[in-house]
Q: What sequence folds into this?
C-alpha cells in the first residue's frame, strides 16, 4: 500500500472510533439500558488500535513470527502490532464487562383486581434502582415496561411511585419485587381532604355533629372541627354533605372535595325556638 492509502485507512478507522465515542457520550443512558455500552467500548478500542497501528506503519515496520506447532510455539510481535495490542489490552483492562440485564413489565390495575384496567395511556411509573431512577409511561393495557434492568437488582424490592392525575397507589409504601418478569400494582382514585367546623348561629362550636357525604361519615370534635377523606372522582350527584346534631335542625349543602375549609351553621330546632320564645 502507498503512504496515502495508509493515511486514508487510518483516518477512516479514527473517524469510526470517534463516532463510537460520541455515541457513548451522548446516548449513554439508552445504551446502558440496552446493555450495549461495553460492546461499543470494545469496538471503539479496536478501531482506535488499528488506526494507530496503520498510521505508525508509515514509519515503523511491523513484524510477527510464529515458530513451532500449533500452540507449542512462540509468537513475537513488534512495531505497530504492539501498539495496537497495548491500546486494546489496556482498554479491556479498565472497562468492566457489561452486566447481564432483564426486562420488567408492571401492570397497573384498580382495586377490583388485575382485570380492572383504570389507566390507559395515562400517567407514568417511577422505579428507583439505586441511583438510577426510571420513568416509563403507562400503555393501552395498563402496562409499564422497564427495559435493561441490571441483573444485580434481581430479587430486590425497589420503591415505586405513580404519576397520574386523580389517582394514587393503594399502598403508598408499596414496592416492586424484581423476582419475575412481571409485577402488578394496585391504584385507586386519589383521596382529597374535606374539613371544616360545625357551629351554631352565634358561632359557638357544635360537638358530636354527624356528617355524611355519600358513604363517608365523620363527627365533629369538641371544638366543632371535623375532617375526613373522600375520593376525588366522587360523582356530582353524591357531593351533598348532610349534617345532623341533637337539638338542631338538619342541614345539607353542596361541597367540592379539596376546596377550602367549610363552615357549617346549624339552627336550633323549631320546637326549641318556639319554647324559648314562649318563655320570653
A:
Amino acid at each position: 500500500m502507498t503512504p496515502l492509502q495508509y493515511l486514508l485507512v487510518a483516518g477512516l478507522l479514527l473517524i469510526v472510533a470517534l463516532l463510537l465515542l460520541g455515541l457513548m457520550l451522548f446516548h449513554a443512558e439508552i445504551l446502558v439500558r440496552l446493555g450495549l455500552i461495553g460492546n461499543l467500548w470494545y469496538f471503539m478500542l479496536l478501531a482506535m488500535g488499528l488506526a494507530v497501528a496503520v498510521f505508525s506503519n508509515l514509519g515503523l515496520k511491523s513484524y510477527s513470527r510464529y515458530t513451532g506447532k500449533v500452540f507449542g510455539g512462540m509468537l513475537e510481535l513488534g512495531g505497530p502490532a504492539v501498539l495496537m495490542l497495548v491500546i486494546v489490552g489496556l482498554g479491556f483492562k479498565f472497562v468492566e464487562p457489561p452486566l447481564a440485564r432483564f426486562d420488567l413489565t408492571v401492570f397497573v390495575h384498580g382495586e377490583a383486581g388485575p382485570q380492572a384496567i383504570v389507566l390507559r395511556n395515562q400517567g407514568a411509573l417511577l422505579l428507583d434502582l439505586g441511583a438510577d431512577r426510571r420513568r416509563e409511561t403507562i400503555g393501552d393495557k395498563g402496562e409499564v415496561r422497564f427495559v435493561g434492568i441490571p441483573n444485580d437488582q434481581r430479587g430486590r424490592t425497589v420503591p415505586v411511585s405513580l404519576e397520574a392525575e386523580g389517582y394514587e397507589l393503594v399502598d403508598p409504601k408499596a414496592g416492586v419485587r424484581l423476582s419475575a418478569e412481571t409485577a402488578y400494582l394496585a391504584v385507586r382514585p386519589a383521596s382529597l381532604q374535606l374539613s371544616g367546623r360545625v357551629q351554631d348561629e352565634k358561632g359557638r362550636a357544635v360537638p358530636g355533629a354527624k356528617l355524611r357525604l355519600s358513604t363517608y361519615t365523620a363527627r365533629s370534635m369538641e371544638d366543632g372541627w371535623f375532617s375526613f377523606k373522600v375520593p376525588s372522582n366522587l360523582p356530582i350527584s353524591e357531593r351533598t354533605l348532610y349534617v345532623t346534631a341533637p337539638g338542631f335542625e338538619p342541614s345539607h349543602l353542596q361541597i367540592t372535595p379539596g376546596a377550602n375549609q367549610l363552615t357549617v351553621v346549624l339552627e336550633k330546632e323549631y320546637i326549641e325556638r318556639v319554647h324559648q320564645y314562649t318563655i320570653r
